[in-house]
Amino acid sequence: MSGAESFGSLFKIPELKRRILFTLGVLVVYRIGAHIPTPGIDGAALAELFEQTKGTIMGMFDMFSGGALSRATIFALGIMPYISASIILQLMTIVSPHLAQLKKEGEQGQKKITQYTRYGTIVISLVQGTGMSVALEAMKSPSGAAIVPEPGWSFRLMAVLTLTAGTAFIMWLGEQITERGIGNGISLIIFAGIVAGAPAAIFLSMDLMGTGDLSILVVLFLSVLMAGVVWAIVFTEGGQRRIPIQYAKRMVGRKMYGGQSTHLPLKVNTSGVIPPIFASSIIMLPATMAQFIDVPIMQQFAGLMQPGTLLYSLFFISAIFFFCYFYTAVIFNPTEVADNMKKNGGFIPGIRPGNKTSDYIDQILSRLTFYGAIYLSFVCILPDYLIKYFNIPFYFGGTSLLIVVGVSLDTMQQIESHLVQRNYDGFLKKGRIRGRRG
Question: For 197-394, which CATH class?
């Protein structure tokens, strides 16, 4: 079956067709909301201010929100409060026995954790909305125009309620996509926010080519390099180390159970895109603070921490390595895996059950995490040097490129699963699309 026929099969399955159209419809609603302004803000003055935010936390969050932050729309906070709440809940499962027990209770426990995540999202949105409204009142554009013409508690209350409601609505849209659409809703909303700015970047590049500021050879080189990076991301995100597991035979009544062989898949990049996001937020903090703190030392340090400098690269890579190991330790517990294997009569050939198995898994996982950290560092650092030395309007940074490719893989994997279940060929003639989940 050709590629065109494979994509044509998408609309031959009523359920799949309905899910795809529903997902596209929800994303259209999200993009419409990203252009509805928050009352009381001078959009032109804010846009002028955001021209100076490249390379800062505000610039990164604006990219994730698809420009909603720079326009101060009702979706200005984006989905980041939900992501922050999810990460906090995951970290708290380590120190909270109640959350740790809920995590082990399967679907019912996950529903409780999801409910707590929603509450956490509202709390974080209220805090961030309050901080944002107060900060906007104190800001002025480079030309001296006030961002908020009529500051006061009436504006703050309206802004906080509007921004919190916007984030809650985005969260609901994401859950609706996950339940009634195709793919992970939250991931697709982030995906839509990132790619929304791609057309403008393409047209800008074409204009620079027309004026001679950007040569055709540079564009061809970047296109080939981009294709190579995308291939590396696809290859690495699907990479696994499969540890063989053998289950011993056991007699239950008059029936014999067990004896089968399986494997434990360990991903090369277990932590996903979380390390680059955390590392970017921390590294960009000095540059963001320097815009509001007129202190010479702060300004000098912020200059040294600009993307493309040696100090920035060293700190960024170190932070990525730290969060790779930290987050992998949070979401994957070798001791728990080894205990579950032992309880079910499973063992790794040549390795004793219990502590030896745990140490063996931990050793392999540490090596994979090291390679994964190198891969993430390369993908995230490369765009900074392309921007510096080629002087181009590079739109997709490393973190955003990881998100776009990863979400695309996951969504295509789900679509292919629907096709294969109904006796249609998938997108590939040989093999299957392997998403980040493996």
Answer: mainly alpha
Buried b (16+ CB within 10 A) or exposed e, 372-395: bbebbbebbbbbbebbeeeebebb
Closest CA to 32 of 196, 206, 161, 220: 196
pLDDT tens, position by position, 9-56: 666 778 888 888 999 999 999 988 888 888 888 777 777 777 665 555
DSSP string computed for 228-292: HHHHHHHHHHT-EEEEEEEEPPEEETTEEE---EEEEEEETTTTTTHHHHHHHHHHHHHHHHHTT
Reported confidence tier of residue 438, pLDDT bands at 50, 70, 90: very low
CATH of 1-195, one of 1.10.3370.10, 3.10.560.10, 3.40.50.300, 3.40.50.720: 1.10.3370.10
Listing DSSP states for 368-435 in one string gives: HHHHHHHHHHHHHHHHHHHHHHH-------HHHHHHHHHHHHHHHHHHHHHHHHTT---S-SSS----
